[in-house]
Structures are given as structure tokens and as C-alpha cells.
Amino acid sequence: MTSAPLAGCILAGGLARRMGGGDKTLLPLAGAPMLARVISRLQPQVGAVVLNANGDAGRFSRFGLPVVADPIEGFAGPLAGILAGLRWARAHHGEAQGVISVAGDTPFYPADLARRLLEARGPDPERIVLARSDGHMHPVFGYWPVSVADSLERFLREGTTRKVLAFVDLHPISAAAFPPEPGAADPFFNINTPEDLDAAETRARDEA
Fold this sequence. Notes:
single chain; alpha/beta; 7-stranded mixed β-sheet
């Protein structure tokens, strides 16, 4: 775990249309739900973890995590889940400077994600930091100061867009670089289709 007080938020509220609907984070990967792998990577990096998902929270009871729904009505995208995580951290972990967000459908993300996000943040705890690799920004993998919760809620309720980068551009921001190692697979590979799940199964087996 990093030395800074952090909470973690796993975003599992996607509609999974290309997977036929339902909770793709509960699909099996290497003999366990995909979500179990995501949780096991995040827990050592932060002080506490919350799961953002809508609907019946009981379907996630086996994981022993608190579950919070989007505080914005309708499917408002990942920013609504990040807001849920920020509100939860403020209410239950007042010591947390910020929240590390990760996607529930990205089971191979870096095991040192939080540390490297904080390194890119530097001494300014009010700075948003997003992960970047191979020329691409990964806007759902980031460090979010708890202090941006109010402005994020206003943005979602009053704005004309709910795009992550549109909100981020309104605040101090840095990027944490995760340069790909030669021959290494993309750590931010996310599972959107049955073919992706097959590829992830092969990768998990090879890494075991």
C-alpha cells in the first residue's frame, strides 16, 4: 500500500452490451470471477475498497465489499461511479486524500498503479492524475482528490457532456506514464467481447 491515505473504487456499472448484457465482471476468468482478480490487485494498493454498481447489491455479496450505486439518475457513465466512490470515501474514510479508480473489466492493470499515480501527482493532493500508456489516456484509471466531489456533481447535473476528459480539463491534471515493455501485453487491456474474454483466459493461464 502507498504511504498516502487512499481509498479505491472499482467501476462495475457498465452495460456490457457487447457481452450480451449483465455483469461481465462476474464472468469466470481463470477459475474465478473476473472481479475477484480486479479486487486482489487493488486491495494491497489502498486502505479500503468500494464497488460501484447499480441494481441489486446482493449479487456482489460474496466479495465482502461495500457497494454504492451511481448518485446520478440514468446511466451517466464512469464519472457517476467516480462520484459515488468520492462520496463514499468522504463519508467512511475521512482521512483519505483521494480515490484510485479502476475498471472492473480490466483484470491485468498494473499492481503499482496507485504508487505511480501518486508519483505523477507530486506534492499537490488536489491534482487529478490519469494513467497513460502507448499514446493513449485511460480516463477511468486515475487518482481523484476527494475535494473535487462537489464540482463533479455540479458538472454531471448541470453540464452538457459527461465525458471524463471534459471534466478533467477543468482542474489541475497530470498524467502517469506506463510505457509498454518490449514484448509485454497491454496492462490496460479491457474485456468488451467474448473474444476478449477468450484472450484474457489465455493470458491469465500463461501468467499463472
